[in-house]
Amino acid sequence: MMAVASAPAKVILFGEHFVVHGNPALLAAINKRISVTAGTIEAEKIVIRSDIGAAGEYSGRVFKVLRGGKRARVLIDPIHDAARRALGSRDRDGGIEIDLCSEIPYGIGLGSSAASCVATVGAVGSLLGRHDRRWICERAVESERMIHKNSSGADCYISTFGGLIRYGRKEGYKKIESRESLSIVIGNTGIKHNTGEMVAGVAKFKARKPKVFQELMTRADEICSDAASALESGELERLGLLMNENQLLLQQIGVSNKKVDELVRACSAAGALGAKITGAGGGGSVIALAANEKESARLAESIRQAGCDPIEAQIDYKGLVV
Ligand code: MEV
Q: Is the CB of 279 inside a 6 Å radius of any atom of ligand 1?
Protein backbone atom coordinates (compact mmCIF):
# COMPACT_ATOMS: atom_id res chain seq x y z
CA MET A 1 0.00 0.00 0.00
CA MET A 2 1.15 3.50 -0.70
CA ALA A 3 -0.13 7.01 0.07
CA VAL A 4 1.07 10.46 -0.95
CA ALA A 5 0.30 13.63 1.01
CA SER A 6 1.45 17.19 0.53
CA ALA A 7 1.17 20.22 2.82
CA PRO A 8 1.90 23.90 2.17
CA ALA A 9 4.38 26.39 3.61
CA LYS A 10 3.06 29.43 5.42
CA VAL A 11 3.63 33.07 6.18
CA ILE A 12 2.61 34.67 9.45
CA LEU A 13 0.96 37.94 8.52
CA PHE A 14 0.55 39.15 12.11
CA GLY A 15 1.25 38.00 15.65
CA GLU A 16 4.25 35.62 15.56
CA HIS A 17 5.88 35.10 18.96
CA PHE A 18 2.93 36.75 20.73
CA VAL A 19 0.88 33.70 19.67
CA VAL A 20 3.18 31.48 21.79
CA HIS A 21 2.04 33.49 24.86
CA GLY A 22 -1.68 33.21 24.16
CA ASN A 23 -2.41 35.98 21.63
CA PRO A 24 -4.02 35.30 18.25
CA ALA A 25 -2.03 35.33 14.98
CA LEU A 26 -3.09 35.72 11.35
CA LEU A 27 -1.54 33.27 8.94
CA ALA A 28 -1.68 32.43 5.24
CA ALA A 29 -0.71 29.19 3.51
CA ILE A 30 1.42 29.72 0.39
CA ASN A 31 1.97 27.79 -2.83
CA LYS A 32 5.19 25.96 -1.86
CA ARG A 33 4.72 22.37 -0.72
CA ILE A 34 6.37 19.44 0.91
CA SER A 35 5.32 16.00 -0.38
CA VAL A 36 5.52 12.81 1.61
CA THR A 37 5.17 9.33 0.13
CA ALA A 38 4.52 6.56 2.65
CA GLY A 39 4.49 2.88 1.71
CA THR A 40 4.20 -0.35 3.65
CA ILE A 41 7.22 -2.69 3.65
CA GLU A 42 7.72 -6.22 4.96
CA ALA A 43 10.64 -5.47 7.30
CA GLU A 44 9.67 -4.35 10.83
CA LYS A 45 11.21 -0.89 10.60
CA ILE A 46 10.52 2.70 9.70
CA VAL A 47 12.80 4.02 6.95
CA ILE A 48 12.88 7.79 6.34
CA ARG A 49 14.59 9.59 3.45
CA SER A 50 14.49 13.36 3.02
CA ASP A 51 15.71 15.30 0.00
CA ILE A 52 17.42 17.78 2.34
CA GLY A 53 20.20 15.20 2.62
CA ALA A 54 19.19 13.05 5.56
CA ALA A 55 18.09 9.41 5.74
CA GLY A 56 17.87 6.82 8.48
CA GLU A 57 16.00 3.80 9.74
CA TYR A 58 14.44 2.94 13.08
CA SER A 59 14.06 -0.64 14.29
CA GLY A 60 12.07 -0.14 17.47
CA ARG A 61 14.03 2.68 19.13
CA VAL A 62 17.35 1.72 17.51
CA PHE A 63 18.39 4.29 14.91
CA LYS A 64 20.80 3.78 12.01
CA VAL A 65 21.99 6.70 9.86
CA LEU A 66 21.74 6.01 6.13
CA ARG A 67 22.74 9.50 4.94
CA GLY A 68 23.60 12.90 6.44
CA GLY A 69 25.89 12.00 9.37
CA LYS A 70 25.13 13.18 12.91
CA ARG A 71 22.74 15.88 11.74
CA ALA A 72 20.43 13.27 10.14
CA ARG A 73 18.80 12.18 13.39
CA VAL A 74 17.92 15.72 14.48
CA LEU A 75 16.25 16.29 11.11
CA ILE A 76 14.29 13.07 10.89
CA ASP A 77 13.36 12.32 14.52
CA PRO A 78 10.28 14.60 14.25
CA ILE A 79 9.21 12.75 11.07
CA HIS A 80 9.63 9.43 12.85
CA ASP A 81 7.61 10.78 15.78
CA ALA A 82 4.87 11.98 13.38
CA ALA A 83 4.75 8.54 11.72
CA ARG A 84 4.51 6.77 15.10
CA ARG A 85 1.74 9.07 16.27
CA ALA A 86 -0.16 8.34 13.06
CA LEU A 87 0.35 4.58 13.50
CA GLY A 88 -0.81 4.73 17.13
CA SER A 89 -0.56 1.59 19.25
CA ARG A 90 -2.28 -0.74 16.77
CA ASP A 91 -0.64 -4.11 16.25
CA ARG A 92 0.50 -4.45 12.68
CA ASP A 93 2.96 -6.58 10.74
CA GLY A 94 5.73 -5.00 8.71
CA GLY A 95 7.02 -1.49 8.54
CA ILE A 96 6.79 1.78 6.64
CA GLU A 97 9.08 3.69 4.34
CA ILE A 98 8.71 7.43 4.04
CA ASP A 99 10.15 9.78 1.40
CA LEU A 100 10.05 13.56 1.75
CA CYS A 101 10.49 15.96 -1.12
CA SER A 102 10.34 19.69 -0.38
CA GLU A 103 9.95 22.95 -2.30
CA ILE A 104 10.06 24.87 0.99
CA PRO A 105 13.40 26.44 1.89
CA TYR A 106 14.43 25.10 5.29
CA GLY A 107 15.00 27.25 8.44
CA ILE A 108 13.82 30.62 7.13
CA GLY A 109 10.42 31.00 8.77
CA LEU A 110 8.20 29.45 6.11
CA GLY A 111 7.03 26.51 8.21
CA SER A 112 8.94 23.65 6.56
CA SER A 113 9.07 21.63 9.82
CA ALA A 114 5.34 21.94 10.45
CA ALA A 115 4.47 21.11 6.83
CA SER A 116 6.66 17.99 6.94
CA CYS A 117 4.97 16.79 10.15
CA VAL A 118 1.49 17.48 8.72
CA ALA A 119 2.23 15.70 5.43
CA THR A 120 3.80 12.72 7.25
CA VAL A 121 0.82 12.20 9.58
CA GLY A 122 -1.45 12.72 6.55
CA ALA A 123 0.33 10.09 4.42
CA VAL A 124 0.86 7.48 7.16
CA GLY A 125 -2.63 8.07 8.61
CA SER A 126 -4.12 7.51 5.19
CA LEU A 127 -2.55 4.01 5.03
CA LEU A 128 -4.74 3.25 8.06
CA GLY A 129 -7.82 4.93 6.64
CA ARG A 130 -7.51 8.09 8.81
CA HIS A 131 -8.33 11.24 6.89
CA ASP A 132 -9.75 13.56 9.54
CA ARG A 133 -7.79 16.81 9.25
CA ARG A 134 -8.22 17.75 12.93
CA TRP A 135 -6.87 14.33 13.98
CA ILE A 136 -3.91 14.81 11.64
CA CYS A 137 -3.21 18.36 12.80
CA GLU A 138 -3.26 17.49 16.52
CA ARG A 139 -0.66 14.77 15.99
CA ALA A 140 1.51 16.99 13.79
CA VAL A 141 1.53 19.71 16.49
CA GLU A 142 2.85 17.20 19.05
CA SER A 143 5.62 16.11 16.66
CA GLU A 144 6.55 19.69 15.85
CA ARG A 145 7.11 20.16 19.59
CA MET A 146 10.15 17.89 19.22
CA ILE A 147 11.64 20.68 17.12
CA HIS A 148 10.68 23.51 19.42
CA LYS A 149 8.96 22.52 22.57
CA ASN A 150 6.85 25.65 23.06
CA SER A 151 5.33 25.65 19.60
CA SER A 152 1.99 27.46 19.56
CA GLY A 153 0.71 25.00 16.94
CA ALA A 154 -0.02 27.89 14.54
CA ASP A 155 2.21 26.57 11.73
CA CYS A 156 0.61 23.10 11.73
CA TYR A 157 -2.91 24.56 11.73
CA ILE A 158 -2.31 26.75 8.68
CA SER A 159 -0.47 23.97 6.85
CA THR A 160 -3.35 21.55 7.49
CA PHE A 161 -6.29 23.82 6.76
CA GLY A 162 -4.78 26.23 4.19
CA GLY A 163 -6.12 29.64 3.15
CA LEU A 164 -6.11 32.52 5.60
CA ILE A 165 -6.77 31.89 9.26
CA ARG A 166 -6.85 33.54 12.64
CA TYR A 167 -5.37 31.14 15.19
CA GLY A 168 -4.97 31.23 18.96
CA ARG A 169 -3.88 28.49 21.37
CA LYS A 170 -7.18 28.71 23.27
CA GLU A 171 -9.57 29.99 20.61
CA GLY A 172 -8.42 27.50 17.92
CA TYR A 173 -8.65 28.54 14.28
CA LYS A 174 -11.14 30.50 12.22
CA LYS A 175 -11.09 30.98 8.43
CA ILE A 176 -10.85 34.57 7.17
CA GLU A 177 -12.14 35.71 3.78
CA SER A 178 -9.99 38.40 2.20
CA ARG A 179 -11.94 40.78 -0.01
CA GLU A 180 -8.88 41.65 -2.13
CA SER A 181 -6.31 39.20 -3.45
CA LEU A 182 -3.02 39.64 -1.59
CA SER A 183 0.24 40.15 -3.48
CA ILE A 184 2.87 39.08 -0.99
CA VAL A 185 6.57 39.01 -1.74
CA ILE A 186 8.88 37.10 0.57
CA GLY A 187 12.51 38.17 0.98
CA ASN A 188 14.88 35.52 2.27
CA THR A 189 17.75 37.16 4.22
CA GLY A 190 19.73 33.93 3.81
CA ILE A 191 20.30 33.83 7.59
CA LYS A 192 18.95 30.53 8.98
CA HIS A 193 17.42 30.70 12.44
CA ASN A 194 16.60 28.24 15.16
CA THR A 195 12.94 28.81 16.05
CA GLY A 196 13.32 27.24 19.53
CA GLU A 197 16.17 29.64 20.38
CA MET A 198 14.25 32.67 19.12
CA VAL A 199 11.17 31.65 21.15
CA ALA A 200 13.35 31.11 24.25
CA GLY A 201 14.88 34.59 23.76
CA VAL A 202 11.40 36.14 23.82
CA ALA A 203 10.53 34.18 27.00
CA LYS A 204 13.64 35.71 28.63
CA PHE A 205 12.54 39.19 27.53
CA LYS A 206 9.12 38.53 29.08
CA ALA A 207 10.71 37.34 32.36
CA ARG A 208 12.98 40.42 32.49
CA LYS A 209 10.31 42.98 31.54
CA PRO A 210 6.87 41.52 32.30
CA LYS A 211 5.03 44.87 32.25
CA VAL A 212 6.52 46.00 28.94
CA PHE A 213 5.82 42.58 27.44
CA GLN A 214 2.19 42.73 28.59
CA GLU A 215 1.76 46.15 26.96
CA LEU A 216 3.24 44.81 23.70
CA MET A 217 0.90 41.78 23.88
CA THR A 218 -2.11 44.10 24.25
CA ARG A 219 -1.09 46.15 21.22
CA ALA A 220 -0.26 43.01 19.16
CA ASP A 221 -3.72 41.66 19.96
CA GLU A 222 -5.39 44.88 18.78
CA ILE A 223 -3.28 44.90 15.60
CA CYS A 224 -4.34 41.33 14.85
CA SER A 225 -8.05 42.14 15.20
CA ASP A 226 -7.72 45.35 13.13
CA ALA A 227 -5.82 43.42 10.47
CA ALA A 228 -8.52 40.72 10.27
CA SER A 229 -11.16 43.38 9.64
CA ALA A 230 -8.88 45.19 7.12
CA LEU A 231 -8.52 41.90 5.24
CA GLU A 232 -12.25 41.27 5.28
CA SER A 233 -13.02 44.76 4.01
CA GLY A 234 -10.15 44.78 1.48
CA GLU A 235 -8.31 47.80 2.97
CA LEU A 236 -4.80 46.97 1.78
CA GLU A 237 -3.23 50.28 2.78
CA ARG A 238 -4.45 49.91 6.35
CA LEU A 239 -3.15 46.34 6.34
CA GLY A 240 0.29 47.58 5.25
CA LEU A 241 0.44 50.18 8.04
CA LEU A 242 -0.50 47.49 10.58
CA MET A 243 2.32 45.29 9.24
CA ASN A 244 4.79 48.13 9.80
CA GLU A 245 3.53 48.60 13.34
CA ASN A 246 3.73 44.86 14.01
CA GLN A 247 7.39 44.99 12.87
CA LEU A 248 8.11 47.68 15.50
CA LEU A 249 6.74 45.36 18.19
CA LEU A 250 8.93 42.51 16.91
CA GLN A 251 11.96 44.81 17.04
CA GLN A 252 11.15 45.63 20.66
CA ILE A 253 11.08 41.97 21.71
CA GLY A 254 14.48 41.50 20.09
CA VAL A 255 13.74 39.20 17.16
CA SER A 256 14.76 41.58 14.38
CA ASN A 257 18.36 42.26 13.36
CA LYS A 258 20.38 44.55 11.08
CA LYS A 259 19.85 42.51 7.91
CA VAL A 260 16.10 42.22 8.54
CA ASP A 261 15.80 45.96 9.30
CA GLU A 262 17.69 46.80 6.09
CA LEU A 263 15.44 44.54 4.03
CA VAL A 264 12.28 45.98 5.61
CA ARG A 265 13.57 49.50 4.78
CA ALA A 266 14.39 48.45 1.19
CA CYS A 267 10.85 47.08 0.76
CA SER A 268 9.26 50.27 2.07
CA ALA A 269 11.51 52.42 -0.16
CA ALA A 270 10.42 50.29 -3.14
CA GLY A 271 6.75 51.09 -2.47
CA ALA A 272 5.62 48.15 -0.31
CA LEU A 273 2.40 48.97 1.56
CA GLY A 274 3.95 47.28 4.59
CA ALA A 275 6.82 44.96 5.49
CA LYS A 276 7.75 42.84 8.47
CA ILE A 277 9.41 39.67 9.69
CA THR A 278 7.44 36.51 9.09
CA GLY A 279 7.98 33.64 11.51
CA ALA A 280 10.65 33.48 14.18
CA GLY A 281 12.95 36.28 12.92
CA GLY A 282 16.66 36.55 13.79
CA GLY A 283 17.19 36.52 10.02
CA GLY A 284 14.84 34.19 8.18
CA SER A 285 12.28 35.89 5.97
CA VAL A 286 10.56 39.22 5.58
CA ILE A 287 7.16 39.62 3.93
CA ALA A 288 6.18 42.71 1.99
CA LEU A 289 2.70 43.57 0.81
CA ALA A 290 2.46 44.96 -2.72
CA ALA A 291 -0.45 47.09 -3.92
CA ASN A 292 -1.05 44.75 -6.87
CA GLU A 293 0.62 42.07 -8.99
CA LYS A 294 2.54 44.56 -11.15
CA GLU A 295 3.98 46.21 -8.04
CA SER A 296 4.89 42.81 -6.66
CA ALA A 297 7.33 42.17 -9.56
CA ARG A 298 8.97 45.56 -8.86
CA LEU A 299 9.20 44.72 -5.17
CA ALA A 300 10.81 41.37 -5.96
CA GLU A 301 13.46 43.16 -8.01
CA SER A 302 14.23 45.55 -5.11
CA ILE A 303 14.57 42.59 -2.76
CA ARG A 304 17.06 41.05 -5.21
CA GLN A 305 18.98 44.34 -5.37
CA ALA A 306 19.13 44.36 -1.55
CA GLY A 307 21.05 41.05 -1.87
CA CYS A 308 18.19 38.76 -0.79
CA ASP A 309 16.24 36.05 -2.61
CA PRO A 310 12.66 37.03 -3.47
CA ILE A 311 9.74 34.56 -3.57
CA GLU A 312 6.47 35.82 -5.07
CA ALA A 313 3.82 33.86 -3.22
CA GLN A 314 0.19 33.09 -3.87
CA ILE A 315 -2.19 31.99 -1.16
CA ASP A 316 -2.81 28.23 -1.09
CA TYR A 317 -6.43 27.42 -0.29
CA LYS A 318 -6.08 23.63 -0.36
CA GLY A 319 -4.05 22.97 2.79
CA LEU A 320 -3.22 19.30 3.28
CA VAL A 321 -3.88 17.16 0.21
CA VAL A 322 -3.81 13.36 0.56
C1 MEV B 1 7.19 30.31 14.01
O2 MEV B 1 6.82 30.13 12.65
C3 MEV B 1 6.17 31.14 14.72
C4 MEV B 1 6.46 31.45 16.19
O5 MEV B 1 5.38 32.27 16.64
C6 MEV B 1 6.54 30.20 17.02
C7 MEV B 1 5.22 29.48 17.22
O8 MEV B 1 4.15 30.03 16.96
O9 MEV B 1 5.27 28.33 17.70
C10 MEV B 1 7.74 32.26 16.35
A: yes
